[in-house]
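Hey, quick one: can you model this chain's 3D structure?
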Amino acid sequence: MNTIIASPLPSFARTVQRHGLALPRTPLQILQVNITKRCNLACTHCHVESGPKRTESMDARTAARLIELMDTAPALHTLDLTGGAPELNAHFREVAVAGRARGLKVIDRCNLTVLFESGQEDTAEFLATNGIAVVASLPCYTPGNVDRQRGKGVFGQSIRALQLLNALGYGQPDSALELDLVYNPLGAALPPPQAALEAEYRLRLHDDFGIVFNRLFTLTNMPIKRFLHELERDGKLDAYLQLLLDAFNPQAALGVMCRNLVSVSWDGQLHDCDFNQMLELPAGGATTTLWDIERLDTIESRSIRFGPHCYGCTAGNGSSCGGALT
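Sure thing. Here's the predicted structure for all 326 residues.
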């Protein structure tokens, strides 16, 4: 069982209160589903600890219940499919198509290299045909940093995948097919300002590889799972936690994703966010599954469970699944 990390920092809830803030839930708008922990990569920063040997994956019964409940949150506008590599789940396409059929924006959080895995030869075409937005991890625009964080040869495959997606219309100025990229720092540092880094990415990827995209999201590395182990191994945990605290931004706190999102695990359990899910912190403090509720919007009445890792979402310009918050 995972627990909140031991921390010398003041509680996140107390810090929020000290700044005169309240962070109640708002209407549920985003349904995020960690549909599998299986992945063809094993990235050093991965808060899910995904990898080729993981077997956890949503089954048909859970997928069917998830689809059934999509109609029970009136403000819901986005279905965010993540993993692992979500495309490796047997029911990924069924769930994605069901979301699109209900008028939801459907996001595939794609590691890019999965598009070249056996059995995934038509995945890019499937995504384009169904108008599914792609949010792709690319922690740098140079091979050295990407391969160091994600594995040898990953950068080259990622570039090929982006060129493939561009050829299908993704990221093009006259296309509705959205292609967003995700940046994570290489180590125990905060991301640089998102707008400036996006401009740099745009220039380098276009000039070097002819690649275009819509937006760049900067995400802070969360001190949990693999990155936590790295911090502990290098003796940097306390310093990194202090860095997050010192950079606490009240304006970013107001926009944290747990306020309008519910995170569903591969086995149907509900959590406040994907990070809480990986720490096995259930929404509302008690284990609840998709079969324990009649409506998804019942989550709106539950308090959010905070911990030291939440400082990662509120440091500097903030960090969420949609990038910087300020």
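One thing worth noting: The chain has a mean pLDDT of 94.
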